[in-house]
Amino acid sequence: MTDQEAAALGAEALAEVKSGHVVGLGTGQAATAFIHALGQAVRAGLTVTAVPTSNASATLARRLGIPLIDEPVALDLAVDGADEVDPRLDLIKGYGGALVREMVVASAARRFVVLVGAEKLVPALGTRGRLPVEVVPFAAPFCRRRLAELGYPATVRTRDGAPFLTDNGNLILDCAVGSIHDPAGLDAAVRAIPGAVGTGLFVGLAHAVMVWEGGRARTLVRRD
Q: Is the domain of 12 the same as that of 103?
């Protein structure tokens, strides 16, 4: 999805926002486009407060004049992107490194809407071969061993030659995966490893996925 397409999709997602809403702001290309659209609406008079999922999203939202709070207890709406979306609208997220905060915000929202390009639609989660797992740094070697025992060898994510640290001060292990036949089961198994903080598997959370395809947005709705 190009930046122009992301901007169009972000503008489409504004229809989900009502005055007075508390809105969760995701992280990444699609979420950034939505934050820009929301900032323009706020400047035009829309009254909202927002909870960001990363320092980067918080910085952008403040610059655009969106009022922020740090209490993701009960949100009306969360809007974010995804790295994979399967036919049940289950997701893999976390390529941008904000998966744990994104999980908290998505879980706290009455409605969770995901924005993606058509290239993110996959027949099964794991198609792109990577599952991010956030871990406490002290536990990283142990978590890597346990993940390898489960059949998912993992590497520590780096940036500019150094280990990448999340906004929580944790590491990301990128697990090599194939098609995941039981996302909920795998998520539970990984989170049961001491030191694992969260996975990029978002199962049963998305209420709707807005897809930019063929020059327009179409909306997929969870059926169960």
A: yes
Q: Which residues are catalytic?
A: 102
Cβ atoms < 10 Å from Cβ of 79: 30
Residue 162: which domain range?
130-199
Rg (CA), the chain: 17
Q: Tell me: the pLDDT tens digits for 78-136?
A: 999 999 999 999 999 999 999 999 999 999 999 999 999 999 999 999 999 999 999 99
pLDDT (average), residues 70-81: 92
Q: Which residues pair with 202 in a beta bridge?
A: 91
Task: Please indicate, yes or no, whether residues 158 and 87 belong to a single structural domain of this protein.
Answer: no
The DSSP result for 90-144, as a single string, is -EE--TTS-HHHHHHHHHHBS-EEEEEEGGGB-SSTTTTSEEEEEE-GGGHHHHH
Look at the chain and report how many structural domains it folds into: 2
Q: What is the CATH number of the domain that holds 104?
A: 3.40.50.1360
List, in order, residues 6 or more apart from 18 with CB less than 8 Å away: 76
217 with 161, same domain? no
How many angstroms separate the CA atoms of 156 and 56, rounded? 22
Are 78 and 170 in a shared domain? no
Name the pTM for this structure: 0.94
